[in-house]
Specification:
The protein has five helices and seven strands. Strand 5 (about 90-95) and strand 6 form a beta hairpin. By secondary structure, the protein is of the alpha/beta class. It has helices at about 35-45, 55-60, 80-85, 105-110, 135-150; strands at about 5-15, 20-30, 45-50, 80, 90-95, 100-105, 115. The chain has one domain (about 5-120, about 130-150): YbaK/aminoacyl-tRNA synthetase-associated domain (YbaK protein).
Length: about 150
């Protein structure tokens, strides 16, 4: 599977007025979610970051590395990148590390808590990578799992 057909679901935690707000962001594996910019504003918090492993697994009931927007608590917003929503097919987590789901991006954009977001950059802001170098560890794990499963 090419990375351009893989999506990462990251859980975001932010605080405002002593209240913790949780959300999910779904972006292509070749894209970085603008957590401290766009997601922070969408979540309406002063500061936010990726949810800790303990918080992510405890609150979602899913395995770390297999988080999916399907089955998250109904009150969590899901911010879907427009590139994911437009994809004919995208590989996402299933809730378990050892399996993945392949869905049309339109299915993810139609989730009840989903809103399609066009606010973050299409490409990573990291320095140029060598060809075929994974964007991040999550994408690398996904590719390894898909190769082993094939």
């Amino acid at each position: 599977m090419p990375l351009a057909e893989s999506a990462n679901c990251v859980l975001i935690a932010g605080k405002r007025g002593g209240e913790t707000r949780l959300a999910a962001a779904l972006v292509l594996a070749t894209t970085r979610a603008d957590v401290n910019g766009a997601v922070r504003r969408l979540l309406d918090v002063r500061k936010c970051s990726f949810a800790s492993r303990e918080l992510a697994t405890g609150e979602s009931g899913m395995e770390y590395g297999g988080i999916t927007p399907l089955g998250l608590p109904a009150d969590w917003p899901v911010f879907v990148d427009a590139a994911v929503a437009a994809a004919d097919r995208v590989v996402i987590g299933s809730g378990l590390r050892r399996s993945k789901l392949v869905l049309a991006g339109s299915v993810l954009a139609a989730l009840p808590a989903a809103s399609v977001w066009r606010g973050w950059p299409r490409r990573s802001s990291r320095p140029a990578r060598r060809r075929n170098e994974p964007v991040n560890r999550t994408a690398e794990v996904l590719v390894d799992e898909l190769v082993r499963a094939a």
